[in-house]
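re: ur question from the group chat, yeah i did fold both. here u go
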Amino acid sequence: MKNNKYSHKVLIYSALLFNFAIAMIIGADSPLAQDVTDLVDNAGTSAASLPGIVTGGGYILATIFGSIGLVKLKAHVEAPTSVELKIPVINLLISGALLALPTMYDVFQNTINPVDGIGFREQDSNVLSEAGNALARIPFSMNAIFGNIGTSLSTLPGLATGVSYLLGIVAGIAALLKLKAHVETSGQVALKESVIRALISGAFLTIPFIFEVVFTTVADDGDTAGMGLGVMGANMLGLSSEGGACPVNLFSNSLGGVICRMWGGTLSFPLLVKSFAYICGIFVAIWGLLKVQEHVLKPDQVTVWEGVSRLLVAGALFALPTMMSVIYNTVAGFVPVHTNTGVLGSIISFFTGGPAAGGGGLDAMLGGLMADIFGPMTVLINWFGFIAGGVLIFIGITRLMKSAQEGARGPGGIGTIITFAVGGALIAFSPMITALTTSLFINPVTTVQSELIYTAGLEGDEIARIQAVVDAIIKFVYILGLISVMRGFFIMRKVAEGDSQASTMAGMTHMIGGAIAVNLGPMIVAVQNTLGITNIGLGFG
């Protein structure tokens, strides 16, 4: 019997879902869907009449309740003790409210947002025009893929807003029906069930205002980085990467050119992450409002934190660039980006007119290789760190919705805390290298150009060749050091996550060993000073 009781509802909902799915794929007046944008547009077109249907249903209910109210009023007059006056009165009042649904919706909406014209700010569509110009030089790169994905998802915020509007309409009618039930059952249906539905209805009907509230709770209302890009934009232009933008021409037919194209071909990825976070923020905010309603209706089953945390997470996702800027500044502070004494082209000159021009040999090849890839590799490593750090911060924000039962990966777990810390260290990777360098060798600038101190019996050309090889090795080790330090950060996060295959010692070894490798020149000087062989070793200016 229990199954039969709900069988008609199952059939109705199944039919609605089936028709909605068909509408998304085919659309009422649209061709066969080609991408997500088409699916969303088709769904929106097919669902455009739903508010009218719901409102029409409200009018039908108003007619029914009005008729019941009149009948009950007649019964009350004829038998006052049998039918209480409140029964016809509440039926007539609810009938009037349902006939005046637009006015009731205005009441619910104004309760939440009494100021007209307040809506959620739009994403900045003109961010990083300089980066956009640079991207145009690399057609059909990964940037095109990222752009296509972003374009296909661009209509999802509108769909989410439409869904919330429908939820607001339904919640408004439900609030009136619950108020009627509260009066008729003499309090057996709690008044809070009507009140919370009315408030949620107002929140959904004015959802852009709710988005604005959760955003400004996290970011300052005048913060240009919140919906802009902040430190994200600076990194996209290469401004906070070591050595600035990639130093080799993007169309250079060399390994350095390939590396720079890897950097330039993914420059729009942060924009995709920002847009994805924006979309997630919209759905999480709607989810948070529903959780607040659940808490009021079922306080023993749903905690208030479940709703509040989702609203806070939504604000943080809307303001992801601000969050990244805050974490970057928290980690880096006033520590400058890292620099070194390497001069692009100082070794490649061996092929074009240096002291060993025309000599060829493995020494010249090695020198030319490092001259070509040294600058691009430092930029690419910093760029990878920034992307990885942004993703980790995104993960950390979403973890704030979890419960304490998640342990290390819960909102207050050590894994989540270290995820934010490592994310900050990675987006501020270059200043972190400066901090490690200064902690070990005082001088914040790494010296990678050597000078032979003992040159007895060597000619000028031979000295130049030896120094070129030594400098190439030092620069190669420098790059390995950057990778090692970054690897150390990832290992420390694994330790915090409870990964049994990672250890604190391994993470510290990678970071300290990497810092020494980055500063191999100063380390050689320190060893020479310790052993007292400064007169026959290498000097580093």
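okk and heres the other one u asked abt
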Amino acid sequence: MSELENKIQEAKERKAEENYTANDIELLEGLAGVRKRPGMYIGSTNQTGLHHLVWEVVDNAVDEALSGFGNIILITIHKDGSLSVLDEGRGIPVDIHKGTGMPAVQLIFSTLHSGGKFSNKAYTSSAGLHGVGASVTNALSVYCDVTVFRNGKISHLRFENGGKLAIPLEELGPTRKHGTLVRFKPDPKIFASTDFKFDTITNHVQESAFLLKGVKFVVIDERTNQKAEYCYEEGIKQYIASMNANKTPIGEIMSFEDTDDEIKIEIAMQYCSKDYTETIYSYANNVRTRDGGTHESGFKTALTKAVNDYAEENNLLRNKAKLEGSDIREGLTAIISLKIPEQLLEYEGQTKQKLGTPAAYNMVSNFIYNQFTYYLNENKEFAISLIKKCTDAQTARIAARKAKDEARNSKKVKTEYILSDKLTPCQSKDYDKNELFIVEGESAGGTARSGRDRLHQAILPLRGKPLNTQVVTKDRMLKNEEFATITNTIGAGIADDFKPENSHYGKVIIMTDADTDGAHIQTLLLTFFYHYMRPLITKGMLFVAMPPLYRVSKEVNHKLVYRYAWDDNDLEVAKKEIGAGYRINRYKGLGEMNAEQLWESTMSPKSRQLLKVTIEDPLLAEQRVNVLMGNDTQIRRQWVEENVNFNEVDSFIDEVK
């Protein structure tokens, strides 16, 4: 850079500094910051963010039940689009808070980081998000009405227009009830849709009901007169039963409980004979720890040691080779639930999805080792069946590793079996920005190659339908050419060895035709990723491309004007935008688009629509995979008959007006 250029750059920097003063710092009073940046508090303003408002209020009710106050929680979706949550807890305090001079209930609903969860005086353990939740729900609502039943009195206050106090705290009369009723209506200015989903809410509260023994959750939808009730006296034991309903178990469901150092442990587990994957869900204070943590690590360590010790003592190991953890956990479904006092609760990172409490590791590890060792000694028939399953898994693992080593050492196999002509790689080594498109068919793959961003987008076409990994062994899956190619292309390992941070792609995108075969291929691939690369899903790295169904076009002044439409609603909008004289093309497959059309409609980050794959409800996900991909055709047929409307036949014909 020349001396003149240096002076110009220095002048620009001085000017920028002079223009950025204290007056440019915006102070957002009260809850204004939440309304301006809602994504910082609820993640998004789509359906996920909308229902996050519900979870925040429900969590406060759960905290009361978790602390032993009240055993019924009623959630009602009202006809006017509002939702209410009623609990039978102690009722939010209404007396004056010394530090602020306002009623405590008003403080909780109008101030971030307020509540009774920062010390262990009001709650020994808590599921809520440390006092943030109620105020965030209030901030993003048209109105929020709070009624408290406490100390023989009914107290009430109301907020409107994003958390502004409309009716100060007032006393409405006497009562014998105790608890809190919160009713709020989400602000349509904030959310893309304010339509609460009955199924989304019932799936979430059912999970809570499993984790809170004997607490009844009732969900009522006044719009449709639907009602659902959940109450489980055996708690997570029934959770396991629901998850394994369509599987072949080895022995009964085992459950273990203990309380030590103020930490309460509940663990339920069961093995299934024809299941080749592990399913472990862990919780801390009823909040799912998606990334595991000390409690889950302690469980896995103890399980591995207990099974190996028993197998060694009874001469059940093949060639005296110790079993690895993955061998022992194959076919296992387990729920780990800890209730931890606030003063002991620690998380790793900001997302609070990985438990970091050191005491949880030793406590769970010692407890499970002793309990499971005792169980194996008392149930020898089960123990022998389990060890056989584990040693079979060990044999398959060793065979798979041998096959993988042979593949690495064979130039011919490495050339034509792993990557070769299948993958069209991208040029960039900036893995976070790179995208892998797994495309249905060679024809669509060729079009995608021509239309892609060569710097950051790689194309991997599939030949035929992949295996159903729900019903085949890991060994057979690894020998499958399509899955071997996908695994080596992503480059982050597989199953227990999978490390999302090692992935060569920040996004893995499934791109198939919008028809029955395309949906089937999507399902087969999702089943594979669910079982063998689940962190891709939990880390938000797996997507499904959404190719448009229609293109509406007409010629204006010798120039083609067009709009894409992804559903019938989009189609009507596109018709109006294009105006009279339009023509509609119906895309029945990716191959019907040219490279430019595929790029701008489905692959370009500026204009495409991607569906992020998530697991919001572990029970529902497990049930869907078991039903749709399992061996029981009768159960699958029943589900399809109950959930698919065969009268909705696609009979679209190109039209010209």
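fwiw on the second one: DSSP finds 22 helices and 21 strands in the chain. Residues 16-28, 411-420, 642-657 have pLDDT under 50 and may be disordered. idk if thats what u expected
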